[in-house]
Amino acid sequence: MMSLRQQASIILIILVIGSMSTIGFISYFIMKDITLEILEEQISMYTQRNAKHFILFLELRLQQFNLLASNPKLPDYIKGDSHVFPFSSQEITTLKGLPNIDYADNIDTLYEFRIIDKDLNVVYSIRNEEIGHPIDINIIKTDFTNFSHLHYELDYYSNVPAIYYTIPIHDSNLKIIGYLSMIFGIETTEIILTDPTEFNTAEFYLVDSNKRLVTPSRFEENLQFTTIVDTIPVRKCLEENLSYTGYYEDYRNVRVYGASECLSKFNLVLLHEIDKSEIDTPINFLLMYSIIASIVVALISFSLAYFFSQRIVKSIKQFVDISNKLSTGEYQAQFPETKIKELSALTYAINQMMGAIKQRDIKSEEHKKIIQEQLSKIQEIDAQKSNFSAMMAHELKTPLVPLAGYAEMLLEDNLLGTLNPAQRDAIEKLYGSIKNLEALIHKMLYVQRLDLGNIKYNIEKIDISKFMQEIYDENSFLMKEKMIKFVNSTDTTTSLYSDPIMIKEVFSNLIQNSVDFVQENTGHIEINAHAIETGIQFFVKDNGNGIAKEKQGQLFKKFYQIDTSIRRKHGGTGLGLSICKKIVDDLDGKIWLESDLDKGTTLFFEISNNTPNMRS
Asked: CA angle, corner 484, sides to 482 and 490, nearest 5?
């Protein structure tokens, strides 16, 4: 067993480490969130900036090409009506440079420039050997059904990445008489798509509509047009035209944090990415420093705890010795005085408490004796009450037997004379009242036997399907007078080990309740049994008036009536449901109901399978 000093030291260490760890982890997550917010803002800003520059470059370049294609001298040159080259050397020189990009002047980006007639014969080319010959479609990579799209492929001659663009040339009647085909270098993007961040793994690159890497990778060589980039931001752009910012796996299968811009006009996706490992490095350093600081503070705290605990350990040991004496009932023992202020107050309080405990024990014994005497009297009165109830029920039942007999004899034609209608009606009412009183006495006696445990349960195997049919047959006569529809919806072949007589008693009370509370002609009562994991669940369902929620909790108490007014429509003793509950409880089951006003009532009860303590 650890000493108090050790426990105090451990508790202090736990508190310190817990506090420092909590602060460290909170700092870690706050730092992580702040870093991600700043990073997301920077990446999004640079991605949008470079996307605008790249779009500006392509649009200005295409504008130049379109101006060349609209040159009025071109149609005559293509037809051969003029042999004067339609473009000036200044126009060709302008094509070779980047248009209006102030940080990338005088870069030769034009690889190929061709004028082609409508029969695809080369009229002019930078390569003289092509002039006068048909052009190979593989060289210009042109889709003659759609001139608005740029194409991105390796240059046919130099095998370097390039952008292909072909423009139709029209005559004065707007008929296509030829084509202007240009191929310019994609290395321009390396100048435009710069990354000003200080991350070593930061990368800008382009992906085309076929999910191919278009620009060079900063990590590996010769990946253009051979590497498929099927990442989350690429799919978002190509399939939904949506930009994306967040964590994902890049084309190297490396976890990165990146952002994308959809350049749908040019069938491209621009991506800006940084490796997650590089982002996490400073945050991980913060976490490591927090852990080290927690350990150092814990060691210091342990040393301080050990030093200060020495002052109270001695007094605590004295407290332990006195406490051991008190535990044996030596209340005269007193805690010694101490110079420690807090312990001195504690000593005084405990000594006062010991005196109070001694006085309390004396009074407790007196109260215990009084309570025992009262309990014996209550048990005696309860037994007398039970005996009196049984005796009164028996005494009431004795005169009812001849009364019922005489009433039956009077109702029998020609036995004691013939009754006129008024006499017969009076005798029938008398006979009904006698039978109701007999039923009441029977239930009172039955409840008494249940309370005293004088009911014997006989467990046997019950065929549920056959048993439910017996219930139906035995209670069908109750439905005839009020024209109630009675249904047995049981559909099971299972069996149950329980007491069939007692279960029938439950059904009898539940069905009688339903008969009392459904309407004539429109009444509907359904009985059912089905297997559950622990045994069988039964129910009796009716379409009566239902029961208010606030009254449902009292239904299974003895003599409870929903309507206690003198003008209540329904009779009954209020014992039927209490009998049901007692029987179901004795059979290791449970009983409950589901009901709403004007929606009818369903009474459920479950009986456990095989109740060994009830076997006869």
From this structure: 150
Greatest C-alpha distance within the chain: 147
* Sheet of strand 203-208, all strands in order from the earlier edge strand to the far edge: 203-208, 268-275, 255-263, 245-249
Give bridge partners of residue 249 from the DSSP assignment.
255
pLDDT of residue 103: 39
Tens of pLDDT, residue by residue over 277-329, are 888 887 777 777 777 876 777 677 667 766 666 666 666 676 677 667 666 66
- CA distances from residue 139 to 155, 160, 241, 421, 431 in whole angstroms, order as listed: 8, 13, 31, 121, 116
Tell me whether residue 440 is exposed, middle or buried, using C-beta atoms within 10 angstroms of its C-beta: 0 to 12, 13 to 18, 19 or more: middle
Percent of the chain at pLDDT exceeding 70: 71
Integer Cα distance of 381 and 81 in angstroms: 135
Q: How far is CA 456 from CA 446, 492, 576, 587, 615, in A?
A: 12, 28, 19, 11, 9
β-pair type (485-488, 524-531): parallel
Q: Is the dihedral of CA 30, 31, 32, 36 positive or negative?
A: positive
pLDDT digits (tens, 9 = 90+) for 373-421: 888 887 777 666 666 666 666 666 667 667 767 677 777 776 777 778 8
Q: Model pTM?
A: 0.45
Q: Where residue 102 falls among pLDDT bands split at 50, 70, 90?
A: very low
**310 contact partners, CB below 8 Å, separation of at least 6:** 5
- Cβ-based neighbours of 396, under 8 Å, separated by 6 or more: 437, 441
Q: Report the residue count for the chain.
A: 616
Say if strands 268-275 and 535-542 run parallel, antiparallel, or are unpaired. Answer: unpaired
The single residue listed with the structure tokens 């200005």 is 60
Question: Per the structure block, which two tokens stand in for 353?
Answer: 């408490």
Rounded CA-CA distance 384/232 in Å is 85
Domain 457-614: CATH architecture, name and number where available: 2-Layer Sandwich (3.30)
Domain ranges of the chain: 339-454, 457-614
Q: Enter the DSSP assignment of 237.
A: I
Buried (b) or exposed (e) across 586-597, using 16+ Cβ within 10 A?
bbbbebebebee
Q: Which amino acid is at 519?
A: Q
Strand 485-488 vs strand 535-542: parallel, antiparallel, or unpaired?
unpaired
